[in-house]
Write a structure and sequence with these properties.
This protein is mostly helical. Helices cover 74% and strands 0% of the residues. It is built from 14 helices and no strands. The termini are far apart. The mean pLDDT is 88.
Amino acid sequence: MILLNLVFFLTTLISGGFSVPILLRLGAKFGPLIVAGEWQRLLLCMFLHGSIWHLFFNMYALYNLGRLAEGVYGAKKFFIIYIVTGMGGSLLSLLMNYSNVSVGASGAIFGLAGALFASGLKYRNTSLNRLARSLLPFILINLLIGFITPVVDNGAHIGGLLSGMLLGYLVSPGESWFAWKKKAEEIIQWAMVVFIAVSVVTFFIPNTWQKSSIDSVITFHNQMQNYIWIAQNGNPPPVHLLENLPAPDREAREIKNKMLEYSSSRTKNAAILQEIENDFMVWRDRVLKKYEGLIYEKDS
C-alpha cells in the first residue's frame, strides 16, 4: 500500500505539484464532483497527499500500523481492511465535509487502528488486548488534533475508525481455518484489486481525453464572461484572443465558435450575441453547480 501511495505522490509531482486543480485532476475527494458521477474519487483520494510532509507522516503511521495489522490478520485481510475502511472514511467525509477538497491515507490508517482496537476489546486476556490499550492514546490524540485543526478532515478519520472497529469485531485474527472462509477472502481480495483497477481506468482514461481540468474551466469561464460583456458594449473581442482561448468541453467549444463567427462578421447581429450569452449562461450554471465552492461568478 505504501508503494501505491508513492506512485500517486510521484504522479502529483510530475503533474505540477500540490495545487487544488492538480489534486482534483488526479482524484481528490470533492462532493459536487462525486455526486456528478465521479465515484472513483472515493477511492483515489486515499492515495493522494497534499504535501511531502503529509505523505511522510501518513506513510510512517502506515508502516508501523500496517506491520501490526498484517501480522495480526494476514496479508489478505489487511488489504481488505485497508481498502474498505479507507472507503468508509471517504464516505463519512463526503457527508460531513461535502464541499471540501480532501486527500490522504489517514482514513485507512485510522481504519487499521480501529480494527486492531476492536479485536483487542473482543479478545480479552490476549496480547491483542494490550495492543488495543496501547493504541488508544494514538487514536484519541489524533482525533483531538482533527477537531482543533480546520484543515484536517476528521470526517475521514472517524469514518475510517468506525468502519475499522466494525471489521475488527467481525474479522478473526490469524489465518482462517475453514476452506470456505479462505476462498471468500481470496474472492474479496481479488474483487478489491479489480475495483481499484476499474476505478483507475474509468477515471483517468476519460479524464485524459474528455474531461477538463478545473483551471481550464476557470480560465474559459472568466475570459468568455469578459468577452461577452465587452461585446455588449460595442467592442467584440479580437479573433486571435478567441482562437487562443482553450475550451474545456464540447459546450464551451460551441460557445467559442459562435463568438468567433460573431467577432469575424462585418455586421454585428444583436440576436446572435444574445444567443451566445444564453448558451454561456446555461453552461455557466452547470459549471458553477458542478464545481460548487471552487468557481464563483465574477461580478460585472
